[in-house]
Amino acid sequence: MQWTITALIERFNGVRLGGSREAVLTHLCSLEEGSCGGIAFFADARYATAFYQTKASAILIARNFKPVEPVAAALIGVEDPYGCFCLLIEEVHQQRLTPKSAIEFPSYIGKGVTVGENIYRGAFSYIGHHVVIGKGVKIYPHVYVGDYVTIGDDTTLYSGAKIEAYTEIGNRCIIHAGAVIGSAGFGFLSRSDGSYKAIPSVGNVRLEDEVEIGANTTIDAATLGSTIVGKGSKIDNLVQVAHNVQIGKHTGIAAQVGIAGSTKIGNYCRLGGQTGIAGHLRLGDHITAIGRAGITRSFPKGAITLSGTPAFENKKFLSCYAQFKNLASSKK
Question: Domain range holding 269?
Fold first, then answer.
């Protein structure tokens, strides 16, 4: 692709803050790996050294930023440098996509399936009985879709995804490779002799519109009712969501998070990597969990940042941790 500095200024309602040359921009790059024809962005002071040393031809920066040293690159002042750069990434991504349509063989489709217009079904994919598939759906090779599954419009299932029976997937969702949606929950009845009897999962999983599920993430079907992921929520790779969990709208969950059964998580929450959440808890809206937090009790009011195990308010945790680090020296 190609862009010009003038075109980017017009597109993002930007201003030229430095550099006079009208370079032709041919690729996106980081500050550290900048090269002639590249466009980068600068939005974090930690990368100041790379900003002043970059060989990129143009840089998106904040309108109010004033360099303290000369910069060879053309500087384009915009409201949100990272947001604008992400739009360019999306543009490049769309150009690179190979259009997918029609049906590849061999593949299997069951009885009573309803299929919308303009779908793609890859080789070796399996579609069970009585499945409903919306328009514009893309099902990549080696995807398994069980019986009575519903898939909304413009949803993409990448290679190797497994969608178990009765799962409901909304519009414009993305399920990445190897994810398993609707597998049996981890529920067992303890017998008097110490053995276990499995409790079947007769519920399902429901993903609302614009949900994205990362590679090799598992979301278990409910014992009864539904395991729910709310509209616009994004779940990273290698996450475990147990049976009957309910996740609110626009919540972000990083890799290796584990959420035990029947816990309810509010809207606009952020869970850092390797956070663990015990079962049957209630977490309100706008909760942030710092990575590796161990949440063992409910925080229904929300609007709090949590750290540590057992997790509690982040500022208190940092204060306690500062004292903890000084214990050894104080005893000398």
Answer: 161-319
| Torsional class of 130: left (φ above 0), alpha (ψ -120 to 50), beta (otherwise) | left
Last residue of a domain, one of 96, 119, 140: 96
In a shared domain, residues 202 and 293:
yes
Amino acid, single-letter form, for residue 185: G
Ramachandran region of residue 102, left (φ > 0), alpha (ψ -120 to 50) or beta? left
The mean of the pLDDT values for the chain is 95
The two beta strands, 287-289 and 226-229, are unpaired
CA atoms within 13 A on the CB side of 98: 2
Three-class SS of residue 50? Answer: helix
- Which residue type sits at 223? T
> Residues 93, 130, 176, 243: which is the catalytic one?
243
In the chain, the amino acid numbered 202 is V
For the stretch 41-52, pLDDT in tens is: 999 999 999 999
* Per-residue pLDDT reduced to its tens digit, 80-95: 999 999 999 999 998 8
Residues pairing with 277 in the sheet: 259, 295
How far apart are the C-alpha atoms of 263 and 295, rounded to whole Å? 11
Same-domain pairing of 315 and 203: yes
- 201 and 277: one domain? yes
243 is catalytic: yes
Does pTM surpass 0.85? yes
Q: How many structural domains comprise the chain?
A: 2
Q: Is residue 233 part of a domain?
A: yes
Choose one of 55, 79, 96: the last residue of a domain.
96
Residue 156: beta bridge partners? 138, 174
Element (H, E) at 309: none
